[in-house]
Amino acid sequence: MEKRSILLVDDREENLLALESLLEDSDLELVKTTSGNEALGLLLERNFALVLLDVQMPEMDGFEVAAIMRGYAQTRYIPIIFITAISREEKYVQLGHEAGAVDYLTKPIDPLVLRSKVRVFCELDRHKRKLQVEVAERRRAEEALQRAKEGLENTNRELQAEMAERRRIEEALREAERVRVLAETAGAAAHEINQPLTALLGISDLLLMHAEVDPSLREQLEMLKEAGRRIATIVRNMKSIERYETQDYVQGKKIVDFSASSRTEEKQIE
After folding, report:
1. pTM over 0.85
2. Strands 50-54, 4-9: parallel, antiparallel or unpaired by DSSP?
């Protein structure tokens, strides 16, 4: 078991020895000093469960030491028991409590009373330090939990971003596959259309070469030739398609608009 440290402050060495003999215990560590200044220095350096403080001391009396202790956060809540040979009149007791003492004992001291009070304050100190450890451990656990929560949130955001990127890639792959299938289908269709179209344009040119062709028929042949040229342009677009656009068709269906796709490609080239 960890020992509790008790600070004994008295300007007379024999009084310190008397207190030491009364409190001799294997569970206590007794630290002695004969001056108020030295007592304040020890209080700032070490942790004490209790201070037994003489009132009448030269240079700095016990009341002054207690007042200074209450002025520092590190020593403010250390219990003080005043031990004095002066009168136990109400005014002195009141001065002791106003200075921050928890008790006020006059000499000669009853050993049983002193040991009982010291034991109580040592037990309180033990519980206080245990509680401080538990609070510190709980705080560390809460901080660790918060870090884990933040890490989980970061992981979740990264996972969502990864899933979004995966969906984007999958959609791009599906689009690429649609373009590939469309290109193959369009290429095959263009090949099938090309031969009769070439024949149609050739026959139109031959008929237009004859001077005796009726003007109205010539106009119809020119229109037919122009339509053939437009079909030829679409066929070329079908052979080299890399992207496509659609347009609305009957009953909510959509069809590929090769002309629009070719215009988009031309704009991109420009």
Report:
1. no
2. parallel
